[in-house]
Design a protein that fits this description.
4 strands; 34% helix; 111 residues; four-stranded antiparallel sheet; alpha+beta
């Protein structure tokens, strides 16, 4: 499987190279950053209604809050790009931006 030469493609290649089976679902954590705790709480509530499992981090006084929006899914390029676009659209009213994602993949959970 070949991925585009961009940040999402590079990340997918790293997950695959770490031993994950890209044909099986894995948990992906999409990071949404906002400016305040109240915005973070509103975003967490909103994304949970769209099937994400959110967790909030205050980033130790760095001036922004992060909401990690976890979703178990197939890690395809189109799916990752679509989820990032969805999160950007959902969180825009709260000043949210989904610029990154991460996954431990599924290599450890396979038999």
């Amino acid at each position: 499987m070949d991925y585009p030469n961009d940040a999402d493609g590079d990340s997918l290649r790293r997950v695959r190279e770490a031993g994950s089976d890209m044909s099986l679902p894995m948990t992906i954590d999409f990071a949404v950053d906002v400016a305040s705790e109240s915005a973070a709480r509103a975003v967490a509530s909103l994304v949970s209604t769209h099937g994400f499992d959110p967790s909030i981090s205050d980033n130790e006084g760095r001036g922004f809050w992060s909401i990690y929006c976890s979703k178990t899914m197939l890690a395809t390029y189109d799916a990752v790009v679509s989820v990032r676009a969805l999160l950007n659209a959902l969180t825009k009213a709260h000043g949210g931006s989904c610029d990154s994602w991460a996954s431990f993949g599924n290599a450890q959970s396979r038999p």
